[in-house]
Design a protein that fits this description.
Elements lengths: L8 H9 L5 H19 L2 E4 L1 H12 L14 E5 L14 H4 L13 H8 L3 E6 L19 E2 L2 E5 L5 H8 L6 E5 L5 H6 L3 E4 L19 E6 L2 H11 L24 H9 L11 E4 L15 H16 L3 E4 L8 H15 L4 H4 L4 H11 L3 H22 L4 E5 L23 H11 L4 H6 L3 E10 L6 E10 L4 H13 L20
Helix pairs in contact: 2-3, 8-9, 8-17, 9-17, 11-13, 11-14, 13-15
């Protein structure tokens, strides 16, 4: 049989179901990869090897014919924003770890973790995030940064940076991420993976009190469209037992007749969800931040967009320029809503003094913002949502670059400042907007979107070959269409410039 390292997540799931691979064997394989590579990449912040192997042994001990979950024995991890019983939860923040560096240990699983356990997944541990998931880079004051496996001098993106680094480096077969402004799509694009942000309402998610504009949704980070579909099918299930934290326990978006995985396979058999006609795809580099900032689309990003356009046309679709423009009030309204969560974080004065500079500045501004100001910002975003959904409705999909620049060097966002210095917050935030000017809007409007790699290119300054890609935004509830197109692009063959092997395996400092 093919080695575990050569299997897709779907292939490993099938091998586990056929008992060609045991759950313990799979867990041991990926735990070994974590031991070998995590020191260099900083993907994991907590590894629970003993608990994972205990769970895997229990799965292997199930008798023949016993019910098995959809991900029976598949090793996974979650971001360090989720509670896992018996594991510490830092939210990437020194404010929660305390002066001694100790982090609170969760007493019970949160809803996402209960869904994953209910599917039979084996949890290996928790991965690196930015503080409270705020940023598009996974660097904080708690643990080493999550590095990009293709160029470890750069970051893996965020906020699901540890998850993407782990999947790209072979430490995980697939990973669940969360996306409130691009947090799945950004690291997936930076690490050369498929990253899907589901439609608002597709996956059970947080309530309006903890997410005022309903921006955040869980979704998959994967190597292939089929792997992403497999995990999306599981994420759509409600958590077993009572809901935690007033979370909505059922999705409200329409689903395929069977499953997302079946929809992708039907596309590969020539029966795509959208029928036999070519899709009309509008391509644009216009950004909602153009009104307040100079958004530079790097040559590598333009080349990735051109490569994506060519591959979509080769797949039989019609790709034409889309004339799009956005409300100039977007930047201010999004900033007010995005920073509000820091104002509700239950931190005392002493703990708040251990925040990064960006989080500290966001918290100060949030605490000074009135409820009326927040309500006006949410109302502005809802108006923008209506305008954008109507404009995008002229097309089956809208195509943009995934990112405006190649993966950013570690420390680039607050360059010239200390990470803990609030005086660098404005530069930090503006650089985040310039790096990823097309992702947050899609959270505001609630549409589904997928990022896929379309070329590999030498990175300026380092010469490392790094991935670049595109973002496809679908119609409401069109995740099956997006995954189908991603599968069509995969079937066209290797992405231009893609290395024959996976990322290099750098050694940790001192090894």
């Amino acid at each position: 049989m093919t080695g575990i390292e050569d299997l897709t997540a779907v292939g490993l799931r099938d091998a586990l179901a056929r008992r060609e691979v045991g759950a313990v064997e799979a867990a041991e394989h990926f735990l070994a990869r974590v031991r070998e590579d995590n020191g260099a990449l900083g993907a994991f912040v907590h590894v629970a090897a003993d608990a994972a192997l205990e769970d895997a042994r229990a799965l292997d001990a199930l008798p023949a014919g016993a019910p098995r979950g959809a991900l029976h024995g598949l090793p996974l991890a979650v971001k360090d924003l989720h509670d896992v019983a018996g594991m510490p939860t830092t939210h990437g923040s020194a404010a929660l770890t305390g002066p001694d560096g100790g982090a609170p240990v969760a007493a019970e699983d949160d809803d996402l973790v209960r869904v994953l356990r209910g599917s039979g997944a084996v949890l290996l541990g928790k991965t690196q995030v930015p503080e409270f998931g705020l940023n598009c880079y996974s660097e904080n004051l708690v643990a080493p940064p999550a590095r990009n496996p293709w160029d470890p001098s750069t970051g893996a993106g965020g906020s699901s940076g540890g998850q993407a680094a782990a999947v790209a480096a072979g430490m995980l077969p697939v990973a669940p991420g969360s996306d409130g402004g691009g947090s799945i799509r950004i690291p997936a694009a930076a690490c050369g993976l498929v990253g899907l942000k589901p439609n608002r309402g597709r996956v059970p998610t947080a309530d309006a009190q903890s997410d005022a504009a309903q921006l955040v949704v869980n979704g998959p980070i994967a190597r292939t469209a089929e792997d992403a579909a497999l995990l999306l099918d599981v994420l759509c299930a409600p958590a077993p037992g009572p809901a935690h934290g007033n979370r909505v326990r059922r999705a409200v978006a329409a689903a395929p007749e069977d499953s997302f995985l079946d929809a992708v396979r039907r596309t590969r058999r020539g029966d795509p969800p959208w029928g036999t006609r070519p899709l009309r795809i509008g391509v644009s580099t216009a950004s909602p931040f153009d009104a307040v900032d100079e958004i530079t689309v790097a040559p590598e990003a333009r080349a990735a967009l051109a490569a994506g356009t060519a591959r979509l046309r080769a797949a039989g679709h019609e790709v034409e320029e889309a004339e799009l423009a956005y409300d100039p009030g977007y930047d201010a309204a999004f900033f007010d809503v995005w920073t509000t969560a820091m104002g509700t974080a239950p931190l005392g004065e002493e703990a708040a003094g251990r925040l990064t500079g960006l989080a500290a500045a966001f918290r100060e501004r949030a605490l000074g913002r009135s409820a009326v100001a927040l309500a006006r910002a949410v109302a502005a975003l809802r108006r923008i949502e209506q305008e954008v959904v109507q404009a995008y409705g002229a097309w089956d999909m809208v195509l943009t670059p995934a990112l405006a620049l190649t993966p950013r060097p570690l420390g680039w966002y607050w360059e010239g400042h200390d990470l803990a210095d609030p005086s660098g917050a404005d530069q930090d935030y503006r650089r985040q907007c310039r790096y990823t000017p097309w992702t947050s809007l899609i959270n505001v409007v609630g549409l589904p979107a997928v990022t896929v790699p379309t070329l590999w290119t030498p990175a300026p300054g380092t010469g490392a070959v790094v991935p670049m890609g595109v973002q496809l935004v679908g119609r409401p509830s069109a995740e099956a269409d997006l995954l189908g197109v991603a599968a069509q692009l995969e079937d066209l063959g290797p992405v231009p410039g893609a290395p024959a092997a996976g990322p290099p395996r750098p050694r940790a400092p001192g090894r």
